[in-house]
Amino acid sequence: MKKVLLTAILACGMAFAGEANATAPAADANATKADANATAAAPAKGDAEAGKAKFAACAGCHGQQGEKQALGKSEVIKGWDAAKVVEALKGYKAGTRNVHGMGSTMKGQAAALSDQDMANIAAYLSSLK
Predict the structure, then answer these.
(1) Which of 71, 108, 113, 129 has the fewest CB atoms nearer than 10 Å to its CB?
(2) In this structure, what are the phi and psi dihedrals at residue 96, rounded to the nearest 5 degrees?
(3) The whole model's pTM is what?
């Protein structure tokens, strides 16, 4: 009888410990996921001067101040709202944006841009009126 009772107590203890261990990583994973979402939701603050320097690589098609239609196809991007610039660049980088047939060309251009680069370019373009 003592063995049966001891076995039952140990089995319950092990089940409880296993359940606690099984839920702990999930809570940590959820916290990590929430932290990542908070970071992703917070847009990078752009630096217009750094953006101007980074935009130099874009000037061949878009003009020094984004005043040209790239390859005669795109919109003039000078003065665009910063959020619109970032959204467009992220879409091109992800391969989900293809406006005026420029998707593949712009995907190659945006591939090496970090979120901070995009924010900087956006700050520069939005500062132009």
Answers:
(1) 129
(2) -100, -5
(3) 0.67
Instruction: Report DSSP state, residue 102.
Output: -
Note the Cα 52 to chain centre separation in Å: 21
Q: Per the structure block, which two tokens stand in for 96?
A: 């989900």
Q: What amino acid is encoded at 95 in this protein? A: G
Helix axes 48-55, 115-127, angle to 10 degrees: 100
Cα of first residue to Cα of last residue in the chain, in angstroms, is 87
CA distance 55 to 40: 23
Kindly report, residue by residue over 37-92, the tens digit of the pLDDT.
444 555 679 999 999 999 999 999 999 999 999 999 999 999 999 999 999 999 99
- 77 Cβ neighbours under 8 A, 6+ residues apart: 62, 66, 85, 125
Coil, strand or helix: which one is 21? Answer: helix
Q: How far apart are CA 100 and CA 66, in angstroms?
A: 16
Q: For position 109, what pLDDT does the model report? A: 95
